[in-house]
Predict the structure.
Amino acid sequence: MKLVFKSISLFALIISLVACSSDDDTQKDEQKPTISINYSNGFPQVCDELKRGETYNFRALVTDNQELASYSIDIHHNFDHHTHDDQEGTCELEPKKDPVNPLIYMENFSIEGAKTEYEINIPITIPADADTGNYHCAYSVTDQTGWQARTSVDIKIVE
Amino acid sequence: MFYKILSAWLGFSLCTLAFAQNSSHIKGFVVDEKTLQPIEGVNIIVENGYAISTEKGEFNIKNLLNKSYQLKISFVGYETQTITISPPFKMLDIHLKESTTILEEVEIVGHSKHRREKESSVSSVSVDKTFLHENRENSLMQTLEKIPGVSTINIGSGQSKPVIRGLGFNRVAVVQNGIKHEAQQWGADHGLEIDQYGIENVQIIKGPISLLYGSDAIAGVVNIKAPPVPLNHTFSGSVNLLGESNNDLIGVSSGIAYRKDKWFYRGRLTYRDYGDYKVPTDKVVYDNYVFDLHKNYLRNTAGKEANASASIGYVDGDFQSETFISNVNGKNGFFANAHGLEVRVSDIDYDKSNRDIDLPYHSVNHFKITNTTCFLIEDHHINIDLGFQNNYREERSEPVPHGYMPKPADSKERSFNKNTYSLNVTDMFYPFNHHEFIAGLNVEYQDNNIGGSGFLIPEYNRFAVGAFIFDKYEINKKLFLQAGLRFDYGVYNTFDYYDWYPSKVDDGNGGTTDEYLQRSKAANLHFGNVSGSVGLSYIADKTTYKFNIGKSFRMPLANELASDGVNYHMYRYEKGNIDLDPEESYQIDLDINHTTDHGYVTFSPFVNFFDNFIYLNPTPDYYETQQVYEYTQSKVFRFGGEISAGTTLFHKLELDVSTQYVYSRQTSGPKKDFTIPFSPPLSGLVSVGYQFQDASIFQAPKVVVSYIITADQNEIVPPEKTTEGYQVFNLSFLLQIATISSEKPLEIRFKLNNIFNTKYYNHTSFYRLIDVPEAGRNVSISLTQNF
């Protein structure tokens, strides 16, 4: 019985030692990056209408506590109303329809130079023959550790 | 304490004996319910007399009056039985059941005898029918979660996966009737397809036990044993009705068992139907999204389950054979607002009913036929398990275009069809004095097929064969040395897979071409592995010590080797690695149990090292705008253990406390210094039970209050979130009413889970990532009539 209690106390001691020491022994990155279009140059904003044939600069601010790694921009149609954005304002959707030649934009980029702040600024031309209607634009960013942040916004492509 | 009561009884009976009139007597015999072997030394006590069973299990109580008597039959290590008999007294045939409820025990595959369990050096816990009945929750693993060291990954209210000491998925082997359960264990939203009714004995082995169970038993085994052979010339059965308030569940399960001489039969039907479950919040806030919940219902989490099983067996002396056939069929909805992490909008009116199962949902059917045969040839105990199982699982969701994939024609997003053929042969024999050898062979063949519009894992076949030898050496009556060695060999054949739609690919000249991308290449992979263990056990008067060092392994899974697809619901591109090595784990286990008449204390720590732990690592890179998650290997160091203690005060008040802890750290690789995914937090369980007096036909009334306390979990690895600690109170009330007889009572269980409707998060729940709290207050009533 004594041995049992001895072993238990030893075990409890090890646990408490580990529990106390685990806070300060490493430089583990436990923070996600951030991503935002909510600033004056952020683009697109909720319900922005993008004209076919025009070129727009897609801009978003990303930050991280240590080192930003990559980002991606994904524009896809929302003709079937399958999703919605995470912005404050809501965007009135046009009636559902079937796609014929929808714009699909999927590109990945890397952020060089161990930055902790960066402005995404990518010119994208809306093809002249793309279907008009509801679209969804999603930004995502990763840091070197592998944490990810995402944001998305509902937009429209018009004539 | 037991002996004190006994001597008091004996003293009383001896005194009264002299005055009794010589008019009648009770005769009978006592056997072990499972082995049907006579038990010697059992105490049979009545008001005016007592007897102790002979070597043949017989007893005879003389000098009784011609009136009703209550007999109390008790023996150490068995559940005490109380029966009422009336004259004329017939020959009594009493079957005692081993009590395994609280005792921390040890056992080796199947060959269960009480003493054998203590002699093994591997740490394990066995629970019986009573434990399963008293603690019954919505799924088998939730029921077993009360055992220190066991936790679960829950998918909604009706499904769960086993986790032992912080490791789950394919690192825990689930064995039913000797055959390893093979399904889609790797999937995050997959639950265990086993009917929890009709199970009477489950053994949890906490520790690496590949030696006996092969690949996957790296963290432990949930060993669901066949129920004992029914008694000769008996027909018995039970009907259970269950109702729950939180998810409006109604369930019914009925089973029968019959034996006539050498042949015996069993059958069971179970049906459960439940609605969406309620959480103690009216909105879920996930990142910037807010989902309002209609009347606290977590939309579209309803489900249903229909199971049937039957068996036919033959027993004759040293020969026993039983064939089991079972089919488990389930359908479960997934939370409608977010499928995985992906936020979805739909025209489906999910709130019109809380019972319908709309898209997205999954359905699963698991068919199993197994045979277990054991016999004795001279000194060789041979055990043969043979099995076939088919697992068919489908995930359905509203078709939506993703990336270059146009809108699919139907809702079948993924389907998995898996056939598994298994054969296990073991031979236990005694070549030398004080040595007991077990030699075994396991062979398994799997055939995996896929379907649906999405691609995650390729089709593959897998063949695995393993052979082991294990020796238990009795150094003296108290000290046992055991050692074993195993060799495994496995072959994988993966098949080609091409997308069913074209993607735009850079043609190298500044333009793009349309291409049907190849997601998986045919490959032929071979794996070999040696595993083994050495252990000591020492059985002192009241204390048992166990020490074990073992090496276990796990073959990489097809998804770990050959995944190559976008999992849109998780916003990630999952990439396999064909060069992965089998996972190898080294573990040192200690287990000390001290049991006296007053209570017990158990302490079971472990230290564990993985040479190449496989996990899905989120990288900083993108593929088609989805973050690349790559299967990677790293070294992992872990330690932890469980402490539990209990006592009974004033013969009535039962106090039990337990605590469990696991520390994990990756010591190499891209996530060095991080923990491993799904690490359960430090937690404890305090339960207080009070056993009331029987009152006429009301037997064994009991109230249990349990208090679960869980610490914060701040040890996470991307993309997990930290989870705050919580405290939850549960209450249960149990009662038996002697409706048909006191041996075939109506068992009533009333449970109140999450009494204070506390809003808390379970770090290892499937819905944790989208900030869905655990279920709110739940009242459940269960009625079981035995006949």
Helices of chain B lie at 2-17, 114-119, 129-134, 140-144, 210-213, 558-562.
